[in-house]
């Protein structure tokens, strides 16, 4: 799916004559996300079918996600969660209140209006770089940089390397990961210590995401013996150590191996079925064809790109008509982005379920093969015991 989405995004980017930096740096973004994940700074959205963190690096980041990264990069997540915060915003989701509250109380973020935070709106490159620069101690309020041209200072201090400018339209979670990882190696303002060193000093053991995940089922490692059962030197039908006939011992061994194989099969089946139920509870799996998904996704990506371009143009016009049209376009953009996010999530759910079902099928095939081998071994052992 990621490959398909990448191709669609690239096609759209060419159509609107922009070149998103994250696409060219997908490997860099994944590496950056992994590094941040290990430090508890970038936790992703759930897990993939293989149990790996689902970083969603091709998706545009939201204001909620940006302010969460801001608090984590400051090393203040625990303080934020333990604190009691009052903000004027009436639209903040419960989980995000500690992050928004801390950032607002410390004058690190504002809302889109006096009472609205708009946490699900996406952020631009300059907006996110502004937050990171504030983490590093720079202050746009006193003239350290201009928030709408934050890339100028970020290029100067080595946080970025010229990939962002006024024409940047596509800024993804992959870009967030790269910028955040780079920030760890940048010195704080007027200090010879890096952000990473400060975080390690203030928080030596970062919290790691312990969300439930499903690991690819492993084939049972039970070794089924093909050795002939031990015989008493004086009696081939009786084992003086156990007090059982050798045939009875072989039957016991056989039943134990089968029970263990069936147990492993059933435990794995229950685990996979439980994870599938969780996925279905989170998102209704997409039921259409892949071509339909690609067509609709492409349409929505083109639509969001067109709307964002129009909004950026209108932002330069302070007339009443322009402001009214911009608000209308922003609403349309939010609706289109939500539909795209929902569609992507449903398609991901469909693929995750298919992957889990395939893993389970392969696992049960392996179990069935081992059962066949054990049955054949058991038959050979019985024949030797009966005829020798």
Please describe what this structure looks like.
The chain has 388 residues and is mainly alpha-helical. It is 58% helix and 0% strand. The chain has helices at residues 2-15, 21-24, 26-38, 63-73, 77-82, 97-105, 125-135, 150-156, 173-183, 195-202, 246-282, 290-314, 320-387. The chain is elongated. The N and C termini lie far apart (60 Å). The model is unreliable at 1-25 and 204-240 (pLDDT under 50).
Lay out the secondary structure:
Elements: H1 2-15, H2 21-24, H3 26-38, H4 63-73, H5 77-82, H6 97-105, H7 125-135, H8 150-156, H9 173-183, H10 195-202, H11 246-282, H12 290-314, H13 320-387
Helix pairs in contact: 1-12, 3-9, 4-6, 4-7, 7-8, 7-9, 11-13, 12-13
Q: What's the quick description here?
A:
The protein has 13 helices and no strands. It has helices at about 1-15, 20-25, 25-40, 65-75, 75-80, 95-105, 125-135, 150-155, 175-185, 195-200, 245-280, 290-315, 320-385.
Task: Looking at this protein, list some descriptive labels.
388 residues, mainly alpha, 0% strand, disordered N terminus
Mean pLDDT: 80
- Helix vs. strand class: mainly alpha
Task: Output the helix-strand order.
Answer: HHHHHHHHHHHHH
Q: What characterizes the major β-sheet?
A: none
Low-confidence stretches: 1-25, 204-240
Describe the global form: elongated
Q: Quaternary status of these chains?
A: single chain
The helix content is 55-70%
Strand residues, percent: under 5%
Number of helices: 13
**Number of extended strands:** 0
